[in-house]
Amino acid sequence: MAEWKFLPFAQTALKNLFSAPVTTGYPFEPAQYPDRMRGHVSIQIENCISCGLCARSCPPGALTVDRKAGTWTINRFDCVQCGNCVNVCPKKCLSIVPGYTQPDVAKHSDTFTRPQQPAQAARPGAKPVNDAAKCVYCTLCAKKCPQEAITVDRAAKSWTLDAEKCVGCGLCAASCPKKCITMQ
């Protein structure tokens, strides 16, 4: 009686023995990733302006940006590859690339440092300028500024820019309904 229970297993084993293998010849053949695979976040650090929008939009808090040091850090273990950081990046220096990150025995973070540039050539002509004749002082530019570099006073009809805080991301110009802000 016990032999009859063993036969269905033997039949499956024999079928698998004579069928083609399911696995690929890894590492000799490159991995084929599924169409809907999320991949992992990649950065072109030379294009990053350290605005911090990616870190603010990251649900698990896997990203940190240090503007003064010019660094961008991702904790790969905490990242869920949702793509929020890629969607909000004003300079489009973030992307999700196919493939898995290399496994490791401990949690670690990847830190990327922006290359140093001469002071005058760091961001030529990247500061917003407001045309007061067109401005309606709606405060949208100040609300969109990731560094809070713009101050708008509707009562006094004043628009001021803190040039030290401004990173030149251009979100203020993009959000202006009257198109009175230009990047110069």
UniProtKB/TrEMBL annotation:
Alphabetized, the UniProt keywords read: 4Fe-4S, Iron, Iron-sulfur, Metal-binding
Instruction: Output compositional bias ranges, type Low complexity.
Output: 114-124
Q: Name one Pfam family in it.
A: Fer4_7
Tell whether Repeat is among the UniProt keywords.
no
Q: Which PROSITE patterns match?
A: 4FE4S_FER_1, 4FE4S_FER_2
Ranges annotated as spanning the membrane: none
Region: Disordered, residue numbers: 107-126
Which InterPro entries would you find in this protein's record?
Answer: 4Fe4S_Fe-S-bd, 4Fe4S_Fe_S_CS, Fe-S_Ferredoxin
Taxonomic superkingdom:
Bacteria
Domain (4Fe-4S ferredoxin-type): give its ranges: 39-68, 70-99, 126-155, 157-184
Keyword Nucleus in record: no
CDD domains for this protein: MtMvhB_like
Q: What is this protein called?
A: 4Fe-4S dicluster domain-containing protein
Task: Provide the species name.
Answer: Gemmiger gallinarum
